[in-house]
Amino acid sequence: MSGAAVSGTAGEGAASGAAPATDRCPRCGGGFRCGVDDPAPCCCSAVPLAPALQQRLRARYTGCLCPRCLQALAAGDPLEPGAGAGSGITSGRREAGAAT
Asked: What is the pLDDT of residues 36-47, one digit of tens each?
């Protein structure tokens, strides 16, 4: 599974110097360059996201998330940035509890 199914995709064209950051991540507010319309595959297509997580992301956010957020979510971070801050808890169990 990939992040490509999450309401479009998110790319890092700006990181490679290909294009400026023109999009804003709805999760963290950071700027990024979505590559969904680029001829090359979007970098988020390489970020594996479980189907249940993809469903929660679609329900919570409109638009593409930046590659950094997608990678953090794939690693088990909570849907809301900082939700587990200070607790050291970033497991899927806490995330699932927060989303229900």
From this structure: 888 888 878 889
